[in-house]
Protein backbone atom coordinates (compact mmCIF):
# COMPACT_ATOMS: atom_id res chain seq x y z
CA UNK A 1 0.00 0.00 0.00
CA UNK A 2 1.54 3.29 -1.06
CA UNK A 3 1.13 6.43 1.02
CA UNK A 4 1.53 10.02 -0.05
CA UNK A 5 3.38 12.46 2.14
CA UNK A 6 3.40 16.20 1.95
CA UNK A 7 6.77 17.79 1.50
CA UNK A 8 7.56 21.31 2.55
CA UNK A 9 10.54 23.38 1.61
CA UNK A 10 12.68 24.49 4.48
CA UNK A 11 15.44 27.03 4.39
CA UNK A 12 18.56 27.04 6.50
CA UNK A 13 20.72 24.31 7.90
CA UNK A 14 18.61 23.62 10.98
CA UNK A 15 15.51 22.78 8.93
CA UNK A 16 13.43 25.63 10.39
CA UNK A 17 11.06 27.49 8.10
CA UNK A 18 11.96 31.11 7.47
CA UNK A 19 8.44 32.21 6.57
CA UNK A 20 6.77 33.78 9.57
CA UNK A 21 3.05 34.37 9.53
CA UNK A 22 1.38 36.78 11.92
CA UNK A 23 -0.71 35.05 14.55
CA UNK A 24 -4.36 35.30 13.62
CA UNK A 25 -7.06 35.99 16.15
CA UNK A 26 -9.45 33.18 16.85
CA UNK A 27 -12.50 32.82 14.65
CA UNK A 28 -14.76 33.85 17.57
CA UNK A 29 -12.86 37.09 18.12
CA UNK A 30 -12.90 37.93 14.41
CA UNK A 31 -16.62 37.12 14.18
CA UNK A 32 -17.48 39.77 16.77
CA UNK A 33 -14.85 42.31 15.71
CA UNK A 34 -15.78 44.78 13.00
CA UNK A 35 -13.90 44.67 9.68
CA UNK A 36 -11.87 41.56 10.54
CA UNK A 37 -9.55 39.96 8.00
CA UNK A 38 -10.64 36.57 6.70
CA UNK A 39 -7.71 34.97 4.89
CA UNK A 40 -9.57 31.64 4.83
CA UNK A 41 -12.90 32.18 3.09
CA UNK A 42 -14.29 28.94 4.52
CA UNK A 43 -13.92 30.27 8.07
CA UNK A 44 -16.06 33.29 7.26
CA UNK A 45 -18.68 31.10 5.60
CA UNK A 46 -18.67 28.88 8.70
CA UNK A 47 -19.31 31.96 10.87
CA UNK A 48 -22.24 32.89 8.66
CA UNK A 49 -23.58 29.33 8.77
CA UNK A 50 -23.51 29.01 12.56
CA UNK A 51 -24.74 32.55 13.18
CA UNK A 52 -27.66 31.79 10.91
CA UNK A 53 -28.44 28.60 12.87
CA UNK A 54 -28.55 30.57 16.12
CA UNK A 55 -30.65 33.26 14.45
CA UNK A 56 -33.15 30.68 13.16
CA UNK A 57 -33.70 29.25 16.63
CA UNK A 58 -33.92 32.69 18.25
CA UNK A 59 -36.47 33.90 15.70
CA UNK A 60 -38.44 30.64 16.11
CA UNK A 61 -38.69 31.25 19.86
CA UNK A 62 -39.69 34.88 19.31
CA UNK A 63 -42.33 34.04 16.69
CA UNK A 64 -43.74 31.33 19.01
CA UNK A 65 -43.97 33.77 21.91
CA UNK A 66 -45.55 36.67 19.96
CA UNK A 67 -47.54 34.53 18.40
CA UNK A 68 -47.05 34.88 14.68
CA UNK A 69 -48.50 32.31 12.34
CA UNK A 70 -49.02 31.49 8.70
CA UNK A 71 -47.42 32.88 5.61
CA UNK A 72 -46.68 36.22 7.28
CA UNK A 73 -44.43 34.50 9.84
CA UNK A 74 -42.60 32.53 7.15
CA UNK A 75 -42.06 35.61 5.00
CA UNK A 76 -40.91 37.70 7.95
CA UNK A 77 -38.45 34.97 8.93
CA UNK A 78 -36.93 34.93 5.46
CA UNK A 79 -36.64 38.72 5.37
CA UNK A 80 -35.20 39.02 8.88
CA UNK A 81 -32.77 36.14 8.41
CA UNK A 82 -31.48 37.26 5.02
CA UNK A 83 -31.43 40.93 6.03
CA UNK A 84 -29.46 40.46 9.24
CA UNK A 85 -26.88 38.20 7.61
CA UNK A 86 -26.48 40.53 4.63
CA UNK A 87 -26.07 43.55 6.90
CA UNK A 88 -23.52 41.65 9.01
CA UNK A 89 -21.48 40.82 5.93
CA UNK A 90 -21.60 44.18 4.21
CA UNK A 91 -21.88 46.71 7.03
CA UNK A 92 -20.20 45.09 10.03
CA UNK A 93 -17.51 42.91 8.44
CA UNK A 94 -17.32 44.94 5.20
CA UNK A 95 -16.34 41.93 3.10
CA UNK A 96 -16.23 42.11 -0.66
CA UNK A 97 -19.28 40.14 -1.79
CA UNK A 98 -17.62 39.18 -5.06
CA UNK A 99 -14.85 37.31 -3.21
CA UNK A 100 -17.52 34.93 -1.94
CA UNK A 101 -19.47 34.56 -5.17
CA UNK A 102 -21.77 37.57 -4.83
CA UNK A 103 -24.53 38.65 -2.49
CA UNK A 104 -26.70 35.65 -3.35
CA UNK A 105 -24.03 33.16 -2.21
CA UNK A 106 -23.65 34.93 1.13
CA UNK A 107 -27.40 35.19 1.57
CA UNK A 108 -28.11 31.52 0.91
CA UNK A 109 -25.22 30.07 2.98
CA UNK A 110 -26.91 27.83 5.57
CA UNK A 111 -30.38 29.24 4.94
CA UNK A 112 -32.25 25.94 4.59
CA UNK A 113 -30.86 24.40 7.77
CA UNK A 114 -31.61 27.63 9.58
CA UNK A 115 -35.15 27.48 8.21
CA UNK A 116 -35.53 23.92 9.50
CA UNK A 117 -34.34 24.93 12.97
CA UNK A 118 -36.68 27.90 12.90
CA UNK A 119 -39.67 25.74 11.95
CA UNK A 120 -39.07 23.17 14.67
CA UNK A 121 -38.56 25.82 17.35
CA UNK A 122 -41.48 27.94 16.20
CA UNK A 123 -43.88 24.99 16.09
CA UNK A 124 -42.85 23.74 19.53
CA UNK A 125 -43.16 27.15 21.20
CA UNK A 126 -46.34 28.17 19.40
CA UNK A 127 -48.07 24.85 20.08
CA UNK A 128 -46.96 24.71 23.69
CA UNK A 129 -48.03 28.25 24.52
CA UNK A 130 -51.06 28.94 22.33
CA UNK A 131 -52.79 25.67 21.50
CA UNK A 132 -55.83 24.90 23.70
CA UNK A 133 -55.99 21.27 22.62
CA UNK A 134 -52.38 20.70 23.57
CA UNK A 135 -52.84 22.16 27.07
CA UNK A 136 -55.99 20.08 27.75
CA UNK A 137 -54.05 16.89 27.11
CA UNK A 138 -51.53 17.80 29.79
Automatic annotation (TrEMBL):
Cellular localization per UniProt: Endoplasmic reticulum membrane
GO cellular component, one term: mitochondrion
Membrane topology of the entry: Multi-pass membrane protein
Top-level lineage group: Eukaryota
Single GO BP term: mitochondrial respirasome assembly
Membrane spanning residue stretches: 110-129
Keyword terms: Endoplasmic reticulum, Membrane, Transmembrane, Transmembrane helix
Family as reported in the entry's similarity comment: Belongs to the EMC6 family.
Protein name listed in UniProt: Respirasome Complex Assembly Factor 1
UniProt organism field: Frankliniella occidentalis
Gene: LOC113208563
Amino acid sequence: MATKTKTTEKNGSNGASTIKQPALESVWVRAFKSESEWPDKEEFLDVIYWARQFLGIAVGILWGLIPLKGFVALLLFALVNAGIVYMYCTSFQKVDEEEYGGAWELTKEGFMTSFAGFLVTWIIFYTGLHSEGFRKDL
